[in-house]
TrEMBL record:
Membrane topology: Multi-pass membrane protein
GO MF terms, alphabetically ordered: monosaccharide transmembrane transporter activity; symporter activity
One Pfam family, short name: Sugar_tr
Family affiliation: Belongs to the major facilitator superfamily. Sugar transporter (TC 2.A.1.1) family.
Localization terms from the record: Membrane
Sequence intervals crossing the membrane: 17-37, 78-102, 109-127, 133-155, 167-185, 197-218, 280-304, 316-338, 345-366, 378-399, 420-440, 446-467
Classification via InterPro entries: MFS_dom (IPR020846), MFS_STP/MST-like_plant (IPR044778), MFS_sugar_transport-like (IPR005828), MFS_trans_sf (IPR036259), STP/PLT_plant (IPR045262), Sugar/inositol_transpt (IPR003663), Sugar_transporter_CS (IPR005829)
Taxonomy, superkingdom: Eukaryota
GO CC entries: membrane
Record's protein name: Major facilitator superfamily (MFS) profile domain-containing protein
Main subcellular location: membrane
Length: 499
């Protein structure tokens, strides 16, 4: 962006923290419930004997005949595809929802996602065969793709810059809440004599209803309204969510950003240009590293993982609930600190904490478990504590910031395209890891944790050297951070030194 106005400050426009914007962000962030509920529910359901016996009898048989120390109890490509098919569908739908969010607004994209997720939940709960399960999962995936594409963008555009971090992390908080709710439901339905898994899967329709209502009643973002040439409506909403009359500076910055965006005919091609190279690279690497941290190893398969290393069925589900509660509490820590300490400090501390935990988990499993050696109660408790510390580190760093930072660094002209890439990379890696983890666990055994620790070391170094601080910078003026960065400034400055 050229022009003196863009270079005067980094865009803390003031304004009050209004109940209106708080309501809009909380309801909008309810899209995170869809993602979280599915992450939590699938691992618990795939450890239930009734579900395995009905749909995956070979896995059920191997589970009950394998040695207690067998890492391969659940190694089944079809079972893994049940969990991971959702994410390949979400990957594809992310591009469609990018177009929908840009053409018709953020609200309608969320509404469409809620409706498809609702139908998918009903189909899964009523499934009579694997085909119904997979079709239901695909529809759930479309809903997740829409939510993860649209919600972070919606929150970043609605929130005042000085509170954007905390409000945006509401999305991650509701993901973690969805996981805990799902784990608690799994624990309860596992006690039922019949059809407990149907209730677990079918209840996915409940968070979908919340998202549908949000898509109906939440206000549209000022950015989206102005982008679609509804400038007076956009100005009115901006005044309402900021709680002050003088919103001219922010409004003019949004209009200027929109005018630039309207000159872009192919946002994906534009995003590939040298000017946007930092945003493009971070839009790929941040979600890639987020998933290669190994978090979905824990969150997808927590009951399966704990059962594999010797916990009983009840203890496995109970442990998964504990992990989920830690996830929620630690996400609250991020909400409180992200706009005080900044993004980089949380990224770096969380990364180091996760690396240490993964190494110690691998050490315990490598020396105290396997062959004829069953994990003792003391070491089992140690693994649970380390998993909780690992989840805590992720929950106040890579979990929320992996969605927040990409959503806030993308200028309007490439925002939908960039967010679609973020979602696609995230869901592609989620799909791959979901599809191969049980096989990795079977082949690598405890080395699976070393594998993910190595990736986390690379990710932490990437943050240290290549990710600038974005705290307190308005999304309309985020382009300025690249001009000051030791590495990226060489890419984004033109011959006159103007962005």
């Amino acid at each position: 962006m050229a022009g003196s106005m863009i270079h005067t400050s980094k865009g803390n426009y003031g304004g009050r923290f209004t109940l209106y914007v708080l309501f809009a962000c909380i309801i909008g962030a309810s899209g995170g419930l869809l993602f979280g509920y599915d992450i939590g529910i699938s691992g618990g359901v795939t450890s239930m004997d009734e579900f395995l016996l009905e749909f995956f009898p070979s896995v059920y048989e191997h589970k009950h005949t394998a040695k207690e120390t067998d890492y391969c109890k659940y190694d089944s490509q079809i079972l893994q595809f049940f969990s991971s098919s959702l994410y390949i569908a979400g990957l594809i739908s992310g591009f469609g929802s990018s177009w929908l969010a840009s053409k018709y607004g953020r609200k309608r994209s969320m509404l469409f996602g809620g409706i498809t997720f609702f139908i998918g939940g009903i189909l899964n709960g009523a499934a009579q065969n694997i085909a119904m399960l997979i079709i239901g999962r695909i529809l759930l995936g479309v809903g997740v793709g829409c939510a993860t594409q649209t919600v972070p963008m919606y929150l970043s555009e609605m929130a005042p810059s000085q509170w954007r971090g905390g409000l945006n992390i509401a999305f991650q908080f509701l993901i973690t809440l969805g996981i805990v709710i799902a784990n608690m439901i799994n624990y309860a339905t596992s006690k039922m004599s019949k059809d407990g898994w149907r209730i677990s899967l079918g209840l996915a329709s409940v968070p979908a209803i919340i998202v549908i209502l949000g898509g109906i009643f939440c206000p549209e973002t000022p950015n989206s309204l102005i982008e679609r040439n509804l400038k007076e409506e956009g100005k009115s909403i901006l005044r309402k969510i900021r709680g002050v009359e003088n919103i001219d500076t922010e409004y003019e910055d949004i209009v200027e950003a929109t005018n630039m965006a309207n000159q872009v005919t192919n946002p994906y091609k534009t995003l590939l240009s040298k000017k946007y190279r930092p945003q493009f690279i971070l839009s790929i690497l941040i979600p890639l590293f987020q998933q290669l941290s190994g978090i979905n190893v824990v969150m997808f398969y927590a009951p399966v993982l704990f059962n594999t290393i010797g916990f009983g069925a009840d203890a496995s589900l109970y442990s998964a609930v504990i992990v989920g509660v830690v996830n929620i509490l630690s996400t609250i820590v991020s909400i409180v600190l992200v706009d005080k300490l900044g993004r980089r400090a949380l990224f770096l501390e969380g990364g180091v904490q996760m690396i240490i935990c993964q190494i110690f988990i691998a050490w315990i499993l490598g020396t105290q478990f396997g062959g004829d050696v069953v994990l003792s109660k003391a070491y089992g408790t140690g693994v649970l504590v380390l998993v909780c510390l690992f989840v805590a580190g992720f929950a106040w760093s890579w979990g929320p910031l992996g969605w927040l930072v990409p959503s806030e660094i993308l200028p309007m002209e490439v925002r939908s395209a960039g967010q679609a890439i973020v979602v696609s990379v995230n869901l592609l890696l989620t799909f791959i890891i979901g599809q191969v983890f049980l096989t990795i666990l079977c082949s690598f055994k405890y080395g699976a944790f070393i594998f993910f620790a190595v990736w986390e070391i690379i990710a932490t170094l990437f943050i240290y050297f290549f990710v600038p601080e974005t705290k307190g910078v308005s999304i309309e003026k985020m382009v300025l951070i690249w001009e000051d960065h030791w590495f990226w400034k060489r890419m984004v400055r033109n011959s006159n030194g103007i962005l």
